[in-house]
Design brief:
heterotrimer; A mainly alpha; B mainly alpha; C mainly alpha; B: mainly alpha; 3-stranded mixed beta sheet; two-stranded antiparallel sheet; 5 strands; 71% helix; globular; disordered N terminus; C: mainly alpha; 78% helix
Amino acid sequence: MVAFWILAPVMVAAALGLLFARKAVHAALLLAVVMISLAVLYAVQDAPFLFAVQIIVYTGAILMLFLFVIMLVGVDASDSIVETIRGHRAASILVGLVFGLTLVLGVAQVSFGAPLGLDEANSEGNIPAVAKILFTRYVFAFEITSALLITAALGAMVLAHRERLTPKPTQAQLAAQRVRDYAEHGKHLGPLPPPGVFARHNAVDTPALLPDGTAAEASISRVLAARGTVKSAPELAEDVKALTEGDD
Amino acid sequence: MSLTPLHDAAAVPAVHPTDAGSLGVLLLLVIGLPALGAAVLLLGGRRTDKWGHLLGCATVIGSLVLSLVLFFDLLGKDAGERQLTQDTWTWFTAGSYKVTFDLLYDPLSAVFLLLITGVGSLIHVYSVGYMAHDERRRRFFGYLNLFVAAMLVLVLAGDYVGVFLGWEGVGLASYLLIGFWQHKPSAAAAAKKAFVINRVGDIGLSLGAALIFVTFGSTSFTVVSAASEHAGDGVLTAIGLLLLLAACGKSAQFPLQTWLLDAMEGPTPVSALIHAATMVTAGVYLIVRSNFIFSLTEDARTAVIVVGCITLLMGAIIGCAKDDIKKALAGSTMSQIGYMVLAAGLGPAGYAFAIFHLLTHGAFKANMFLGAGSVMHGMDDDVNMRHYGALQKAMPLTFATFAVGYLAIIGVPPFAGFWSKDKIIESAFADNFVVGLCALVGAGVTAFYMSRLMLLTFFTKKRWEKGVHPHESPNVMTWPLIGLAVLSAAGGLLLVNDWIVDWLTPVVGEHAEEHLSVSPLVMSLIALLVVALGVLVAWVFVGQRDVPREAPVKVSFVTRAARAELYGDAFNEEVIVKPGWSGVRGLAVFDRGFVDGIVEGTAASFAGISSRFRLAQNGFVRSYALALLAGAAMVLLALLAVNFS
Amino acid sequence: MDVTPFIVLSAILFTIGCVGVLTRRNAIVVFMCVELMLNASNLALVTFSRANGNLEGQIAAFFVMVVAAAEVVVGLAIIMTIFRTRRSASVDDASLLKY
């Protein structure tokens, strides 16, 4: 019960955070908090199998799926605070409150009596007991859900597939296009700059140095630059100096 | 006003006819022949054009022959056995109420049959010549036959509903014939006016028949005449007044008299047959036939007498100022029928005289109308008497026959009119001095305007239009004139030995003896004196002066009123037509504004409400999700309420 | 251990998920709120399984998880496809079904 009273406020706070988070990634992580807390509550309630499955399947697979899609769709993408539909926010909060209060009050009125507990059901261990019921009584539903999963996977493949509508450009075409771009727009003809002779790192956030010692902007991801997590050139210079002088 | 007291129940004769036997077939044929003629001529179309007029004459002449046979058969019977009935078939039954087409042939029907078919035949023959140049002549004869058939149904029916059928039939025929020259808007308007005003009268007949049914449980003459003594005074008076309304409509009596002068738009034979001799007398027939009702109610009879008096004076005054020869004769008809109605209102003392005058009037008025037609034929269809003059030499035969009719109508012995009109004046005086005075004055005025007519047409100086060469009419037109002139002259024979009175006794009851303060001979002399005065006035003021070809504008108020038909039309216009129009306009406004407003307003309000509500469909999924959640919340609340209540 | 607090917690989480679905515009975050709702019902199922003394509730919760997994797979694939064509993952974009 202690676990419950600790975790319950955490979960509610995380859920509310999910409601108010600006960036989708933050929302996903807060959802992860909620899910893991739920897993603990399952464990507390004599459901060790579900505890494991919750963490592995829900948090580990489903939530990761969410994160992948957020990555594909755009990490930058964020909700604006301004509500476009007039009066919708107020109405939603009001209705939500009414709904919630009704639900909570209704539930609170019910006297459930003392819980019977799962000691008897779990007498052989939770997992064998679950397996026993699952593969006897619910085997048909089990098979159907497996079919469902297969269908879902296939569906996802079909939906995400992109048909190539134009022929794939060959190496020669790509090269010709590159020269054309240089002629018309002055785009740099060669590949992106490598780390360089004096490069100490080939990390993503380390810019390549140009001959005159300045950082090459093209060698750094735009996103990292936007985040401001790029290492600066003077730092690198210090690094090099320490190394070369240290060698002697 | 004291009427001859009439509370002797035995005086009201009951209708209890015996079966007609072998004569029944003839009765059916009397109606059937003209009906068949009408059907053939109207349904046969142009194929019948060549011989249509001959068929039309043949059917009516055939009916005349049959009527004569029936009449002589009836003459041969005893007085008590002169009521015959012929069963035909049942029209409809409603519960215990049964209406049949059974025919009733009694002395009253007999004389009417002779009048209708006799005068009708002569007029049919006349029309062969009069309508010779009209390309729709065949249709004209079809309508005439239709009229004769309907009129015969009217007088032979043994049931008020049967009378109503004939009533409507003659109304239809009148409409068709007045508006026969359809291309003339005035004729169409006149036909419509006649029909509409007759309709007002028909209300009286239908309500009267309904009231009779409610009171007696049947509308058959047999049943009603036997039971009428047992009905209450109020009911009998009501029935009487309703029947009087019907008679006013059909017979052009006040207050439904305005259509008769307009009806002169129809061809002259129509005016002669329908609006002089037969149809307009149907009202008098109705009153006399319903004697078992009228004899029992003083109040209704008083109303009848009042109507008769008013109309006879009204018609006479109107006739004085009309320059159109047909309209003058129409005014005269109105007035003479007023006399008949007056006589009928006198009760058993007058019924027989009313019928007597009806018969003589039928002869001499038809005679004069046909004569007028003959004059018009010779004057290029001009009806304005101011364009006539000195036609005595140009159309001698027409003049001679017309003169016989003229003498008959003003009441110069030994012509028919003298006998019939005199009897009415006598009975009127015996009843009430004022009524008698009205009748007497009416006789004087009649003499005046008829003399004026004669003077303007046949005497005075020539005022003919250029290019008009009056000539005598062909034989086919003059022979009927001669026939009718003979009847006008000899009609008085009906009164020999009070034959007509005795003849009609089984129908109308015992003739009550009247008590005049002076002897009948003195009465007649006074009447003749008044007539002579009228003729003299006409001779002085019309015959001796030059007749202007244009009607003078500056005339006395009385003349102007008479020219306007005593403002009958103006009264109808103000009191009935105009309020009717404003009522209609008001109803139209109400319908458009209120009723349509409600209907369209409901639709518009729904449209408005829905255009408000549709804004809820803003397309955003989140709004719809909000609605979902709200619904779920409501379901929850409901569950809680149910659970914890 | 009382049953009621768990159920109340489940109700609260569910409501927050509902409001989240209504309020957020990013399709992925809306989906996450739906997952929150599913998790809340899972908690209720497990709690009732303990209250009733048998494992039916846990089995049900298990199935919910499986189906949620399948649903997330297909749903995210759809969102991604829509994003490819529309260049935006906003829920408000699908607003043609209006007056």
